[in-house]
Amino acid sequence: MLEKTGVPTPAQVEAVKPSPERLTEGPVVIVECFQEIPCDPCYTACKRGGFLPFADINDLPRMDFAKCNGCGICIGACPGLAVFVVDETYAEDKALLMIPWEFLPVPEEGNMVKGLNREGDVLADVEVKKVRSAGSHNQTSILTLIVPKKYAHDIRSIRVD
Amino acid sequence: MNKAEILVIGSGPAGLKASLSAADQGAGVTLVERDPFLGGQLVKQTHMFFGSKEQYASERGFKIAEKLTAAAEEHPGVRVLKGAAALGYYDDNVVTLELKGRVLPVSYDAMIMATGAQENTLMFPNCDLPGIYGAGAVQTLMNVYGVLPGKRVAMLGAGNIGVIVSYQLLQAGVEVPAIIEAAPEIGAYHVHASKVRRMGVPIYTSQTVVSAHGSDALEKIIMVELDDSWQPVPDTERELDVDVLCIAVGLTPLTEILFQAGCEIAYIPELGGHVPRRSAVMETSVANIYIAGDVSGIEEASAAMVEGTIAGLTAAFNLGYGRDSYEQKIAAANLELDALRKGPTGEKIRTGLQNLKKTGEVRQ
Q1: Which residues in chain B touch residue A2, judged by CB atoms under 8 angstroms apart?
Q2: What is the ipTM of this complex?
Q3: Which CATH number does the domain B2-118+251-357 belong to among 3.40.190.10, 3.50.50.60, 3.30.1130.10, 3.30.70.20?
Q4: Chain A partners of B61 at a C-beta cutoff of 8 Å?
Q5: According to DSSP H, which parts of chain A are helical?
Q6: B299-314, pLDDT tens digit by residue?
């Protein structure tokens, strides 16, 4: 499916999710990288050991979720824009979701935007809680969104109307 | 006559790295570029690059171009000639350039060809209507000159170029109603495909464009589904209204001058067509002519940079420079290249290089 449509299967998405226990402990990274390509900046970006060492640059990222504090530094380092951070502890029925964003306009904090799934369909209106730059040498923005908890693992992009 | 110790033709990732690595070893380099700026295709690449730190992973292509261009222009060992097109090869190590309307012959001790590749196109009825572009042209319009190519653009080809240019079109505010790919699977890195898909762009595999329509310019295309043998499936034709069709169906190495110089050439489809036979350190079959980058086989820019390094080091070494450090630097570069080509996405290039090798050893 991924190789025909660009959309990963539910099984692929499930396989890279942290455990339910880890998700209840606070923000944690989710890396939706399913194809072995020659690329390793996620591993070199993380100074906490959250990414296990690459034996080969073509390896898929393998995680040590216990060492990840959800800082999101790897989000801006990933050329494939395949890294997200989810914090399910934010509120009863809301989660925080960090996504990379490379379009104009860059929304402002407090803006309401459309939350899109992996196929670009609108799932919900979501609030932009925080906007930060991925770094002085990197034009990617990192958005923190307040999303319905039930969509924390489905919303992966936004549309600014 | 103008003399160049090492003449490098083309200033894309391969040519820039070749120039810098040869000059760092102490050789005198003349770097020739047809465009008025250095960087080749890198200048149009607004996305972050893959690879590893050694190949500037996570940096955007145009930023890599800025870095390498500054390094080349500031290097005392590199003379840069911009706006100079290589015209042809002559015996006794001479290449003619066209510079400011004049023909300039340059003689060299060694030459590194880093001319890159040209885009392939497709033939179908009305494929010459205004509004039908190569993906490289669309990138040049948008990212070099700031000109929007159209309002609603269909992309033909879901390789890395097709999908990346689609993403750049979206960033420029252009609607992309379809990415169309004749092959049954997406050729691009899947992460690239996912990032356009989640912006709502559908990717249609096993489909192609059979004709274009419009009175003065493109108004619509006709798409069709393809069966397992790539033949149109009857009654699956449908129309799509677009004002631009962008064609991204592969690249062909630019080998004309190497043909002219008498370099042995082999036809290796996996490498993009006709490519020069070469040694492991990028020597062609003609003495003192080296190659690097897409002219030696279509591959990613990361690999082109490493090939450039290898060609530059070897050309310098054969002229007597960097004798002490050569082996060690080549070994390090080979490790990088092997790593880049090792995974499943490197299979095509590995097959191509094996098939090229089967044509025999290169002897100068």
Answers
A1: 190, 193-194
A2: 0.97
A3: 3.50.50.60
A4: none
A5: 2-5, 10-15, 20-23, 41-45, 73-77
A6: 999 999 999 999 999 9
